[in-house]
Amino acid sequence: MTDAELAAHLADFAGRLLLDVRASGMFPAKALGKAGDQTANQFLCHALRAQRPDDGLLSEEEKDNADRLSKGRVWIVDPVDGTREYGEERADWAVHVGLSVDGVATVGAVALPGLGVVLRSDRPQPLPPANQPLRMLVSRTRPAAEAVAVAERLGAELLPMGSAGAKAMAVVRGEADIYLHTGGQYEWDSCAPVAVAAAHGLFCARVDGSPLRYNQPDVYLPDLIICRPELADAVLSAARAEAA
Fold first, then answer.
1. Which residues are documented as binding site?
2. Is there a domain that residue 67 lies in?
3. What residues contact residue 92 under an 8 Å CB cut-off, 6+ apart?
4. pTM of the complete model
5. Which one of 120, 144, 176 terminates a domain?
6. What are 82-93's pLDDT values in tens digits?
């Protein structure tokens, strides 16, 4: 398999495992997220080490290994992005399998198991038309004040949604036009979504317009913008005005 085929296969299979874990009825709500995280993580990490033994690996659910910093190719995975939504049997959670090459999110797949969809960097589709009025994604539980203010500046409607991957893929799918996040994230929250979004022609950057860089010693990557390319200048200007 190519890297992209491997990413898609693993994200899809892990998503189906997670649905099976949830459907088993073996776990109370508070334990379901942990059980799902650990099950999917074991599968993804064992599979990647078997299929790409020379590559580095960074997972939210594994202890970080500094050996990855010496690698040009590093797989960055989030077994369950949106553990709360997964446990609540919602559809807005995701599985992320991304590959950083020399610090750039290059290959990725994001599974949305609740929707039966896997979006891939190697199978980009044309972007649907922009929404009128524009739609901007925010957290369904704790929308960032900066994002709400930027939406007001742009005249955009707010669309609350769960996980970072689900929000990013909503822009890819045309359900929304802008995803701006300033509330704190880590590399596994955005690597695969950014790879997929960029392959579909979307603008992806830090909120200050600088590039998103991966496989860094500090994996904290607190903010990002994913939006339609024709909106990039307006979104960056609004974000800068709010930060001033």
1. 60, 78, 81, 189
2. yes
3. 82, 85, 114, 140, 161, 162, 163, 166, 167
4. 0.96
5. 120
6. 999 999 999 999
Query: Rounded CA gap, 122 and 124, in Å?
Result: 6
Q: Per the annotation, where are the binding residues for Mg(2+)?
A: 60, 78, 81, 189
Digit-coded pLDDT (tens) for 20-42: 999 999 999 889 999 999 999 99
- Token digits for 171? 């822009």
pLDDT value, residue 144: 80
Indicate if 103 and 154 belong to the same structural domain: no
Contacts of 203 (CB under 8 A, 6+ apart): 225, 226, 227, 228, 229, 231, 232, 235
Nearest-angstrom CA–CA distance, 123 and 107 = 11
Residue 49 has pLDDT above 80, yes or no: yes
**Domain-ending residue, one of 97, 120, 143:** 120
Is the pLDDT reported for residue 139 higher than 90?
no
Taking CA 157 as the corner, what is the angle to CA 154 and CA 158, rounded to the nearest 5 degrees? 110
- CATH number of the domain bearing residue 214: 3.40.190.80
Sign of CA dihedral 2, 203, 168, 188: positive
Q: CB–CB of 9/47 below 8 Å?
A: no
Segments forming the whole domain that contains residue 231: 135-243
